[in-house]
Amino acid sequence: MCRHGDTKDLRVLIPAHLSHTGADRWDTKAIDSCLADIVEALNAAKLYTLTSCCGHGRGRGEIVLHDGRMLVIEQTRQCKRCSDFYALIGRDDRSEYCRKCWQGHFKST
Prior knowledge:
Elements: E1 7-14, E2 25-32, H1 36-44, E3 49-53, E4 61-65, E5 70-73, E6 76-78, E7 85-87, H2 99-107
Antiparallel strand pairs: 1-2, 3-4, 4-5, 6-7
């Protein structure tokens, strides 16, 4: 996740319903730098993006496509016990174990 304001300029498709011209048009917009490569690849594949935000370490990130689908960007960590990757839920960044290992830890004590 990048800091707020850490952006890369990309040319993106502005759909007609959001365009001041009333027609689809291309424009340069500031995209969060940690998502810029993903947004660029999606647009190159004609999966045009509507909005994106990485969450800046305060929550989940999202990339919304023109067709209404949403890609969710979750921050992950690797469990110290089983080495599985798990998503951080909410703002609790202190956990060092996945839910399975955390629950197992308390059951065995």
